[in-house]
Amino acid sequence: MEAAQSEGRTEYVHLAERLILHAQTEEEVLYPTAILIGEYLKQQAK
After folding, report:
1. Which residue range forms the structural domain that includes residue 41?
2. Domain count within the chain
3. Phi then psi dihedrals of residue 2, to 5 deg
């Protein structure tokens, strides 16, 4: 993102921002949800 900013390439700055947000969403929402679902399914299988 810094390189794009220094080059004045705002379209790449926006792309980098979206990628960062996507990665944060995966780490904070999707992965924990998948773990919880897996744990729930293990409990239901018993």
Report:
1. 2-45
2. 1
3. -65, -40
